[in-house]
Amino acid sequence: MSTPMADDLINWKAFAETRNLMGAGFVRILGYFREDGMKSLATIEEAMRLKDSAKLVMPAHTLKGESWQFGAEKLGSLAEQVEITARHYVEIRQDPSDLVEKVAALRPTFEATLAALEAEVSPLVERKPHAFGNRSAFGGRGFSS
């Protein structure tokens, strides 16, 4: 079910476009997002423990791209900030200690995002309209007043 917090996390129009493009494989691909996201988060967190800027770049880049694919703009933007800053730190040979807060925010943002996405595709959840158009609980289009 869409909540105000979920609407802050997800661009529902981008989500709907991706869902339409992927068709029947969408739920399976969302499962890959879950798996890949968990791996990326673990790698990012380990890189922070090691204070290794270079090891932050690729998993943050991966998380960013996959997030944006599903309309998860808040998570994608946060991952992008980590990626860009880590790339800069690699160039200037600086450890990523300044990124602790952003990295710490990734996991709860990922979990909240994933919960919102999974609730949206669950056949057991009644849905409220999103800003991009009204929808009935059964996924059909309704009328705006």
TrEMBL record:
SUPFAM superfamilies: Histidine-containing phosphotransfer domain, HPT domain
HPt domain segment(s): 22-117
Superkingdom of origin organism: Bacteria
Residues the record lists as Phosphohistidine modifications: H61
Keywords: Phosphoprotein, Two-component regulatory system
PROSITE patterns: HPT
Keyword Metal-binding: no
Protein's UniProt keywords contain Ribonucleoprotein: no
InterPro entries with a match to the protein in the record: HPT_dom_sf, Sig_transdc_His_kin_Hpt_dom
A Pfam entry, by short name: Hpt
Family matches, as Gene3D superfamilies: HPT domain
CDD domains: HPT (cd00088)
Name recorded for this polypeptide: Hpt domain-containing protein
Organism: Sphingorhabdus arenilitoris
High-level lineage: Bacteria, Pseudomonadati, Pseudomonadota, Alphaproteobacteria, Sphingomonadales
